[in-house]
Design goal:
Length: 243
């Protein structure tokens, strides 16, 4: 069996998720028919357990492999989500000050002399500069003193939330370089997990056939005869013989 790529493992995981839903419907069908033997119910439960365990291992492997270049597009989508979460966290600092103190007081001036929040939702130089300036101002003696004042108890949690959101975004958009051997190990880990998941899915089809041997049309009706798609194996061009 050829190795599973990251994308193939993701597609197989999606297929396995659908299979678990189909197995749940199959079990419900048995529950409607109380005269069904217990053994057949057990076969379906075993199938669901095997797929669930293998799916969890595959998802874990894919999660660990997120630093790989294959996840660049997914990181872009996630960075947009985190950028919005970061902007929301910064704006909550501003809103908290307005609600608890004043919209025109010295604290607003100390933290937000330029209220260009829209730039935070577009990761780039403008957003980075905004944060560097905001962080510098948040670490000023004036702001740190207010954070110790009980009347400003609302402020430290808001600042901490903004810092946490910024750190998550920064770690995502500037991942640490991944050594080639580590990258290959992560890909191999994903491939092994996907192979085990594919085996569990093949076993599930066999168990479903056995469970519904008396009513074989239900296998297709429930979608339990479906097979995951695999890309055609890539073959290397033949080497030419030396003259």
């Amino acid at each position: 069996m050829s190795a599973y790529s990251i994308q193939e493992a993701q597609e197989l995981s999606a297929f396995a998720t659908q299979t678990l839903e189909r197995l749940a419907r199959a079990s419900a069908r048995f529950d409607e028919q109380h005269d069904q033997p217990m053994a057949e119910r057990t076969w379906l439960a075993t199938a669901a357990e095997r797929v669930s365990e293998a799916l969890e291992r595959t998802r874990d492997a894919l999660g660990e492999a997120e630093p790989l270049p294959e996840f660049a597009s997914a990181r872009k989508v996630k960075s947009d989500v985190l950028a919005n979460a970061w902007a929301d966290a910064v704006e909550r600092v501003f809103d908290g000050i307005v609600a608890n103190v004043s919209a025109n007081g010295p604290l607003v001036e100390a933290l937000f002399p330029h209220q260009r929040f829209a730039s935070l939702r577009r990761p780039g130089t403008a957003a980075q500069n905004f944060w560097l300036e905001f962080e510098r101002r948040a670490e000023s003696a004036y702001v740190r003193r207010l954070c110790q004042d009980p009347e400003y108890a609302f402020l430290p949690p808001l600042l901490a939330s903004a810092r946490e959101s910024e750190q998550k975004l920064r770690e995502l958009v500037t991942p640490k370089p991944l050594p080639e051997d580590k990258a290959n190990a992560l890909r191999e880990q994903v491939s092994h997990a996907a192979e085990a998941l594919e085996l569990a899915l093949r076993q599930t089809r066999a168990l479903a056939d056995a469970a519904f041997a008396a009513t074989p049309t239900l296998v297709a009706e429930l979608g339990l005869d479906a097979k995951p798609k695999r890309r055609a194996a890539r073959t290397e061009p033949p080497k030419l013989s030396p003259n």
